[in-house]
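Slide 14.
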Amino acid sequence: MTDSDLPPRYTRLTFHGPLSEARAARLVSRLARTSPATVLDLGCGWGELLLRILDAVPGAVGTGIDLSRADLDRGQGNAATRGLADRVAFIEESAVGTARGPADLVLCVGSSHVLSDAKPPRHTVDALHALRRLVNPGGRVLLGEGFWEHPPSPAEVAAMWPGMTARDHYDLAGLVDLAISAGFRPEWIETADLDEWDDFESGVGADVEEWLAAHQGHPQAAAIRQRADDRLSIWLRGSRGRLGLAYLTLIPLP
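Slide 15: predicted structure.
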C-alpha cells in the first residue's frame, strides 16, 4: 500500500486553520505596515500566511519551521511558483527551544504546542514566553490560539477529543491576560467566526469524503470511514461553537 492509494491531504484548504480570505487580507495588511525585514513562522505547515506577508513586504525574508515534510514541500513549491524561493526557507525541525529568532515578525497560528513539551494549558504560557524571546523590539507577534467560547459542560468535553478536559484552554479574557503577563500589549484582538470554522472543517474532510465515494471496495475504506465519522462527531457534537480560535496581534513591551 502506498500513499497514492490513500486519500489526499488538505488539498481543499488554503490555510491550515479557520481563516477566511477577507481576514487573511486584513492580517497581512496590518502586519506588513510595520515593514518587517525578517519573519519567523513556527509550526508553519505550508506557510501560506508567511508567503503572503513576504509578497506584501518587498525585501523581507522568512523562515518556516515544521515537522511535516509534506507540508514543507508544499510551501516550498508555492514559494517557487510565486517567485519567493530565494526569500524563504522551510526547515524540518522542532521549534521547542528554537534559536532561529529573533525576528521582526513572529507567526504562531494554531501551533503554540510546537513551542513547549508541557501539557495544556501550561503550553500556552510557555509559548507566550518563548514568543516574547523570539521577537525583536518594536516587532509584532501574531498568535492564533484556541480558547473556550463558553465554559464547556462535562458532556460537551466528553464529545471532543479523547483526553481533553475543560482546563485545557482559557477563555478569551484569560488568554489576553496571559499575553499581557508575558510582556505583550494587544494591538488587535479578533476571533474566527463560525463560517470560518465550518469552511475549515469541511475542507479537512472533503478530500476523504470524495475518496471514500470512489473507493468503496478499498481494503482500508472501513477504517478511513470510521476515522472520518469520529472527526465529524467531534466537530458537530463537541467543538463546534464551543472551541474558538483567537488571532492576537501582540506588541512586545521593552
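Speaker note: The beta strands are 38-42, 61-66, 88-92, 103-109, 135-148, 184-191, 243-252.
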